[in-house]
Amino acid sequence: MPLAGWDFSWFEGRASEERPPWGYAGLLGERMARAKVALDVQTGGGEVVASIPKPPARLAATEAWPPNAIVAQRNLDPMGGRVARAAEDTLPFRDGTFDLVTSRHPVVAAWPEISRVLAPGGTYFSQQVGAGSNQELIDFMMGPQPVSQARSPRRAVEQAEATGLEVVDLREAALRVEFGDVGAVVHFLRKVLWTVPDFSAERYRERLLQLHQRIQAEGPFVAHSYRFLIEARKREPG
């Protein structure tokens, strides 16, 4: 079961997540086709960017986790993309380099850095994980946990505007998630590490056994994820 990259095809037939109605990949492709110099931040394995039909003349990406960066470079090579290994809150590029910065499900949105590397009139386009995603699964595994608002759309707008960006589009969606067996839950928690930060199958053995019994008796375990789409533009001087 590969953990590198963001290819979730392993879950087919075992777990499912409803997709947001706006179709991020299609919208990304449209914006990439119009861009001249673009950056994809926290690209994972580069799978989403690699699916666009027409890349810009210059394409860069960042990724913090070395195994992901290797996969991403392999996926972006055919379109001339270059992957820089960088921490989530750092963009190792000059000011005003890009007319388009994108990111799908960033761990953190480094708004000051995003604003800094955008050229005047440039656009940031991102689909992000909202507050309370998979809270049902988190609470089952760890007991009731507070829901942080750090990932709320409202907070994202405030942070974007504080760095001089103008939010031109904001959309939200609540999506149904189903886990058909406990093995899918284990693989998900190993891949999406921040869901249950201290997770290991051994440490959560008893909870996993209870979850297995519940799925056997009641059917798929249902949770909900939250996504929001945000598009912001860097203001022109003056």
UniProtKB/TrEMBL annotation:
Q: Which residues form a coiled coil?
A: none
What InterPro entries does UniProt report for this protein, alphabetically? 23S_rRNA_MeTrnsfrase_RlmA, Methyltransf_11, SAM-dependent_MTases_sf
GO terms of biological process kind: methylation
Task: Select a single GO molecular function from the record's annotations and give it.
Answer: S-adenosylmethionine-dependent methyltransferase activity
**Start and end of every Methyltransferase type domain?**
39-125
Keywords linked to the UniProt accession: Methyltransferase, Transferase
Protein's UniProt keywords contain Transferase = yes
**What's the protein name?**
Class I SAM-dependent methyltransferase
